[in-house]
Amino acid sequence: MADPISLGLLGVGTLFGAVSSIGSAQAQAASLQAQTNAANYNAELYQQQAQNTMAQSVANSNLQANRAEQSLARQRAATAESGVGFDGTAGDLIDQSAVNAELDRQNTLYSGMLNASSLNSQADQSTYQAQVAQSQINPTIAGGYIGATGNILSGVGGYMGYNRRMTSAGGGYYNSAAISSALSGSKF
User: Fold this and answer.
1) Which domain range does residue 60 map to?
2) Within a domain: residue 187?
3) Phi and psi dihedrals of 38, rounded to 5?
4) Which of 9, 22, 37, 123 could hold 46 in an S-S bridge, CB 3.0 to 4.6 Å?
């Protein structure tokens, strides 16, 4: 018979190696899932920020347009009250003020669009990171099971090698002298 302590240690070592491979793979998969969740959460936040930025930009441009309209109304009233008329320089100044006000409104919108676009790009990057992390989960788990299988096969191979040494040392049969001799490294 084979030495029960050696066989037991071989079996325990094989089992621990297999369990360790699976446990390590599951821990890595859990970490990848956490990365996936965090990246998806960040993507949602960036998208919300982009929407809020655009909405704020529209609100600011509308406020700016209302203020400009009030200012232009005051300019028109002052020009009419002065009796100068709207022809010539006075009309040109009012027209230029209207053009400048519209450019300011459009610049406010454009700035908001640029900021929102940047936030949307960050959301896309976070979504991509989530997809990459998610795509690595199954291969990681499979790798753990493959490693566990390798540990088990290595243990079986170790047992078979041990068994072969014991059989050949005993002339084809197990005996205590053959086991002692194989373990001590001496030959009959």
Assistant:
1) 4-182
2) no
3) -65, -45
4) 123
Contacts of 93-97 with CB under 8 Å at 24 or more apart are: 97/68, 97/71, 97/72
List C-alpha distances in Å: 177 to 3, 162, 174, 180, 181.
12, 15, 9, 5, 6
Give the mean model confidence (pLDDT) for residues 32-44: 96
105 inside domain: yes
The mean of the pLDDT values for the chain is 86
What pTM was estimated for this model as a whole? Answer: 0.67
Task: Single out the residue of 91, 97, 89, 94 nearest to residue 65, CA to CA.
Answer: 97
Q: Does residue 188 sit within a domain?
A: no
**Is residue 30 included in any domain, yes or no?**
yes
Region 93-112 average pLDDT: 94
Rounded Cα–Cα distance for residues 90 and 77 (Å): 12
SS3 state of residue 55: helix
Give, as one character, the DSSP assignment of residue 86: S
Separation between Cα atoms, residue 37 and residue 78, nearest integer Å = 61
> What is residue 185's predicted lDDT score, i.e. its pLDDT?
56
Residue range 113-134, pLDDT digits in tens: 999 999 999 999 999 999 999 9
